[in-house]
Amino acid sequence: MNTPFHIPEGNFRGHDRQNVWKLAPDPELTEVGPGTACGEYMRRFWMPVAMTDQIGDLPYRIRILGEDLVLFREKKEGRLGLTHLHCVHRNMSLEFGIVEEGGIRCSYHGWKYGLDGTVLETPCEPPASQVKKKTCLGAYPVIEYKGLAFAYLGPADTTPPFPVMDTFDEEGDDMLPSLIKSPCNWLQVMENAWDPFHVVYLHTLAVRSQFIDAFAEMPMIEFHEGRYGDFYTNVRRVGDIVWLRVHDHMMPSFTQNGAHFPVPDRQRYFGRCGLSRWVVPIDDTNTMVVTWRHFRDGDDPRGMTDKSKVGYGTTDFYGQGPDRSYEQRQRDPGDYDAWVSQGPKNIHARENLSFTDRGVAKVRRMLRNNIRSLAAGNPVEHPAAASSGILPTYAGDTMLRIPIQPGRDDAAVLKEISFKVADIFRASDDRSGAARKSFIQDELKKYEAGWA
Amino acid sequence: MNTPFHIPEGNFRGHDRQNVWKLAPDPELTEVGPGTACGEYMRRFWMPVAMTDQIGDLPYRIRILGEDLVLFREKKEGRLGLTHLHCVHRNMSLEFGIVEEGGIRCSYHGWKYGLDGTVLETPCEPPASQVKKKTCLGAYPVIEYKGLAFAYLGPADTTPPFPVMDTFDEEGDDMLPSLIKSPCNWLQVMENAWDPFHVVYLHTLAVRSQFIDAFAEMPMIEFHEGRYGDFYTNVRRVGDIVWLRVHDHMMPSFTQNGAHFPVPDRQRYFGRCGLSRWVVPIDDTNTMVVTWRHFRDGDDPRGMTDKSKVGYGTTDFYGQGPDRSYEQRQRDPGDYDAWVSQGPKNIHARENLSFTDRGVAKVRRMLRNNIRSLAAGNPVEHPAAASSGILPTYAGDTMLRIPIQPGRDDAAVLKEISFKVADIFRASDDRSGAARKSFIQDELKKYEAGWA
Amino acid sequence: MNTPFHIPEGNFRGHDRQNVWKLAPDPELTEVGPGTACGEYMRRFWMPVAMTDQIGDLPYRIRILGEDLVLFREKKEGRLGLTHLHCVHRNMSLEFGIVEEGGIRCSYHGWKYGLDGTVLETPCEPPASQVKKKTCLGAYPVIEYKGLAFAYLGPADTTPPFPVMDTFDEEGDDMLPSLIKSPCNWLQVMENAWDPFHVVYLHTLAVRSQFIDAFAEMPMIEFHEGRYGDFYTNVRRVGDIVWLRVHDHMMPSFTQNGAHFPVPDRQRYFGRCGLSRWVVPIDDTNTMVVTWRHFRDGDDPRGMTDKSKVGYGTTDFYGQGPDRSYEQRQRDPGDYDAWVSQGPKNIHARENLSFTDRGVAKVRRMLRNNIRSLAAGNPVEHPAAASSGILPTYAGDTMLRIPIQPGRDDAAVLKEISFKVADIFRASDDRSGAARKSFIQDELKKYEAGWA
């Protein structure tokens, strides 16, 4: 018989590898609910939990770290309250409660709670009733700042200072909040920011330049320790320009990256970050990315940003949410498609981490160490506790005119520049504001001049 | 640095109270499936399972106490049949069966079942086949009465008489059935009727008068035992009028309340209930409220009722179903929002029961005792078994003109009146119909006159 | 009191039979995921996994036997590849990958895989990286044939030959593929084809003739063993015509039935099947029916077929999918309604198998034996391995003019004819194509003539 079909040849190992279907996620790094080790660790930090423009005159139900909560703006001074969802009398949800001056009232029998969950009134109880002294509603402190509501869900006696970075209050920076949800575990969303190589592929070579063509060049990556967190440098040579792109990371999930649409065609000294970003677990398999998007003169020479797109569920750069058809997501996948399609919880045991994954491996190691340290009874370190004020950060783009040096291996040159620039940045830690900026810029120019 | 945000102060105990997220529902009172203790107890009673106007010429699939069933009207005498959903031959669902004279036939291989589940025909089997004698389909008896189908899902040998209350067949009462589903456990829906204080808050003070302004007054509540069930009196003084509102309860889930829109501005002697109500579990986390809404001359002086709204999925008073937007439910929450938002199964261990919850505590205690009594092998008591006919009930509004008594504490007066009126009602138990009504009215008038 | 309602009488056994709610499906025959006994057995066969007209230029995500996979057509020679869904680097889904020449590339970091899952490129890794030699992607061989993609998901070293039946490449047969999904376990879909009696009831007597009136007659069924599979004969007498309808079955889930709209009013010798059909598990509770529908001159004398309806999610005969309203499904249930309404997994322990279910019982027994045989370490038998080429099958309609024989019991006559025709069919096994067809037709005519 003439075979009317092609018989495939090859070393097919699908059945040999069926154990992949049995492998499970790592609970130590991915479970964030009440009482879990990672959840306890994350509860030691202030985290953004909502955009304040979503909080109107009604209670606003949210879910954070597996806890169902209600956020509201009390009517006397406009302060935000964040409490457990269910009234402690009969468990009716306070999303149906009445927001009042100084607190919230359950609509079932009228129990009223203060911002800290103290039972203020039990109007249907007899005057002599002591019930309001015997219980309280779980509540968490909230700080409202520049369009975001930050909460601290940990033990009251370890409440850290609220950390304010230098990038939160810059002159000339129009800072806009955004919040976008993803149906997957927080860790895979966070790791994306520790992975500088996906920029080359996913954002540039895979289909099209989602940001700028210059990202197609493979960067040299160096990891550095700062006083208050970690940062890494991406170095690329673009003709005579040595382009250093710096990313910040602070545990557990804060990151800052460089500009979104940089153009490495001229000198730039200590340009700053395009995004301040927190990855906040809703629960084990839902996550929100809460950001401030920064807009400064000079950050976007080609005019590719769009402030009008930044807000609840949306931002002005490609691929951050589900706002595209399945076909479009297939034809031009973005970050959202990468992290969501890793699964509800990425299974690390199935991965093959390699050279490009040093950042991912590093953050998992740091996270695991910190989780175990807390579980062993050690205090959690907070940058804001170690600092006397605003925290210096490093993220942004610096472009130095340093041509190829005849007779020297350029990779060695770029590496040397990476470490030197990191040193200059760190040397500025005790300065702040304009003085710090001038210091860094002067040092960078001096250093650049030394290569001329 | 000038802190540009407010640092919250207070005694925040959200983290201290994280154990609330671990607490679980009480299985003894909330699990109703086959073989559960509460489910067995509830299977000892006739319960309404459908509105008959929903049963057309096709099989009607329903779910009761966790059992998937099919209800149909056979075509010879129009009798209702209620059987297990799946044909016992090959398990095809009888919702796709053919309703015939005297029974239902599976469309797969034609097995036909009588109303009691007996296999009547197996047309594809050989004539000598004995299979139809070896098995049967699970079936339950059904009584059709005034627009409702009642079923008994317990053991055949303990089938109780069908209980008929005096309120089921009153002269001049236009009685309309309604059935509304709620996605939560039955107990929290039922308890709402044992809680006279939520009327003050949820229905009146919280947002607006959903019924009448007079409910804003805190009532004095007294619980009484009747011959066939429990009842309680809500007493309020409205000027010279002492307004007694009586609610009936019979285990496991039957209740009757007073008129929906009473006006306590004149005398009324033994006005009757606005609603006869059963709470029927669909399964552990779904429930239906099945009612007859009563419409009588004089019950609604302000014309606030609307017969056209009473039916499948709807009724003529506010907040009983999901027929409102989420925003409207937040702005003006009703009973449905209270019980559904307690969660799929309310977690009693999180509650703080207090003075207002005496009814809730009482019904849980009675229910638990009855469940344990049955589990211990005792027979279940049925009012209809103890009675020779129609069962007397008490629910409704009575309004007596009894002014404040100079020199006497009015609370004591109201309490005395509550008990006396309860005594008058109970004294009528051996009478029925018009004779009973005259007796009660005469006694109430005599008693009222004694205060003049 | 005059009882205003009917009190039902009968032997109601719903409560007695509450154990039916506790019975569970048979895991040995219904669980098909990786590592299960039945799943391993089914992984020893080529199965159709998609219609090729659904595979465009993008990766096509599918799920087979509980495994998430991606099917794609590489761009050099147009060959089909089938791999595990998740990239083995960081687990991004390859449904968002880039289909290229000779393979597929993950869009996250650019790892490229060949059709057999070999890692071909890791572009972000340093040149010296060995990671691509250390791992591979699970992949399965695919054969594309007449509009269907067939895959083999078992161990490479036991890959059987691709079985080609005589019905796959007939002269004058316009063969169209179809694929329809059902939300239930595969076994109940497959068993429907082993049950010749549901044709009488479901398809004919229950509501209306969904196919032809002649199916209303109860057939005589005989099971026969063929060289490569099983077949059964349905015999019915229609006047002078003895109508033999033959169905093929090959393990695990291949079947062929007779014509869909036969008219038994004249002689027909070895008419062939209307459908070649595979039941393919998506997972334990989802299944697809993949078919070739055959269209030949003479198969449809009444013109009831419609090629335009055969395709993805649809076919030209009634009741095969969810493409009808719930009311229509109730008023005129089809095969889909039968097997889906048995539940996500039919519970055999609730059934009462009887005379009509000999086929169902037989296929379960064969399946269980084969599953256990493989689990015990025995090789799986494959018809295609035992044959030197195209496999002979028997399904179709034969109509012989053999009047009732005076003095003989007609049932005995029909039974004799069934066995003789089966013998004639089997005697043709070593012939093929036109020669085989002539042989069978000549033998049938000779045999028929012997009854004149």
SSE layout and pairings?
The structure is a homotrimer of 452-residue chains.
Chain A: H1 27-30, H2 37-42, E1 46-51, E2 60-64, E3 67-73, E4 80-84, E5 98-100, E6 103-105, E7 112-114, E8 119-121, H3 131-134, E9 139-140, E10 142-145, E11 148-152, E12 174-182, H4 186-191, H5 198-205, E13 220-225, E14 230-238, E15 241-250, E16 254-257, E17 275-283, E18 286-295, H6 326-331, H7 335-341, H8 358-375, H9 383-386, E19 396-401, H10 410-427, H11 433-450
Helix pairs in contact in A: 10-11
Question: How would you portray this structure in words?
Answer:
The structure is a homotrimer of 452-residue chains. In chain A, 22% of the residues lie in helices and 24% in strands. In chain A, helix 10 packs antiparallel against helix 11. In chain A, the strands form 4 sheets. In chain A, strands 12, 13, 14, 15, 16, 17, 18 and 19 form an 8-stranded antiparallel beta sheet that branches. With 452 residues, chain A is of the alpha+beta class. The first copy, chain A, has 11 helices and 19 strands. The model of chain A has no long low-confidence stretch (mean pLDDT 96). Chain A has helices at 27-30, 37-42, 131-134, 186-191, 198-205, 326-331, 335-341, 358-375, 383-386, 410-427, 433-450; strands at residues 46-51, 60-64, 67-73, 80-84, 98-100, 103-105, 112-114, 119-121, 139-140, 142-145, 148-152, 174-182, 220-225, 230-238, 241-250, 254-257, 275-283, 286-295, 396-401. The termini of chain A are far apart. Chains in contact: A-B, A-C, B-C. At the A-C interface, helix 5, helix 6 and helix 7 of A face strand 4, strand 9 and strand 10 of C.
